[in-house]
Design goal:
By secondary structure, the chain is α/β, with parallel strands linked by helices. It is built from 8 helices and 7 strands, in the order βαβαβαβαβαβαααβ. Bound molecules: beta-D-glucopyranose (BGC).
């Protein structure tokens, strides 16, 4: 098992890719700290699925977009399991709006969860690691749209592009502390964030034609790569983005 004796905190793990990550880490022997906004049925189901693997899990309800919450999340995780070794910044939101219709409120929601939340939670984690004099690993669940344009999702792209540069900067700053950081860039994955797309064949067919493997990915496809990057198998990997997109980002054909 990759993570025996290790503790991982996964933001936004009440459902979707976050839940698959939580279950994967449970299968690999980690103590799992599940986080989402509310202690609802989704959160309970993730905890149940992690515990079904034989691993221990706790749930911390918290809004990572509020800076005043993040230090407490790290402290709660450490209190529950004695230490925290791995942070997976998974929580993310997207709002579709043409550029001229984007409101300040929409802008703030997307940037505060995707970028600001990840930034300050990571800062709190790194401060903890420094105090505890421990190595650590961070993996961000980014998107192909940290690189690839996505019309009508400009704020989402800005947040993911920002996540890319935060990751690259921190790889340089934190390398000497033996803290690694990488991004995973999923393409079109079958998750609740895509619910409206999944229900519309007229949108699904052109999307699948833009993916080299001609199908959507599953949350587990992303979780597997995140677990690899968080493990010692990837101990010489830092400052990189790994695409998990079935070839979507660089798909190109000519007739
Ligand atoms: C977005 C999805 C989108 C996919 C591929 C993801 O980052 O969350 O809505 O379908 O990228 O474009």
């Amino acid at each position: 098992m990759k993570f025996s004796g290790k503790t991982v905190l996964i933001t936004g793990s009440g459902r979707g890719i976050g839940r698959a990550i939580a279950v994967k880490f449970g299968q690999e022997g980690a103590n799992v700290v599940v986080n989402d906004l509310h202690d609802d049925d989704n959160a309970k189901e993730t905890v149940r699925q992690v515990e079904a693997t034989g691993a221990k899990a706790i749930f911390i309800p918290s809004d990572i977009s509020k800076v005043e919450n993040v230090a407490g999340m790290i402290a709660n995780a450490v209190e529950a399991f004695g230490q925290l070794n791995i942070l997976i910044n998974n929580a993310g939101v997207e709002i579709r709006a043409p550029f001229c219709e984007v409101t300040e409120q929409q802008y703030d929601i997307v940037m505060d969860v995707n970028l600001k939340g990840m930034f300050f939670l990571t800062q709190a984690f790194v401060k903890y690691l420094q105090q505890a004099n421990m190595p650590g690993v961070i993996v961000n669940n980014s998107s192909v749209h940290e690189e690839l344009p996505f019309p009508n999702f400009t704020v989402y792209c800005a947040s993911k592009g920002g996540m890319q540069m935060v990751m690259r900067n921190l790889a340089v700053e934190l390398g000497p502390l033996n803290i690694r950081i990488n991004n995973v860039a999923p393409g079109a994955i079958r998750t609740p964030i895509n619910a409206s797309l999944l229900s519309k064949p007229e949108l699904m067919v052109p999307l699948q034609n833009n993916i080299s493997l001609h199908r959507l990915g599953e949350p587990e496809d992303v979780a597997n790569v995140i677990a690899f990057l968080a493990s010692d198998e990837a101990k010489y990997v830092t400052g990189s983005t790994y695409y998990v997109d079935g070839g979507l980002a660089f798909h190109y054909t000519e007739q």
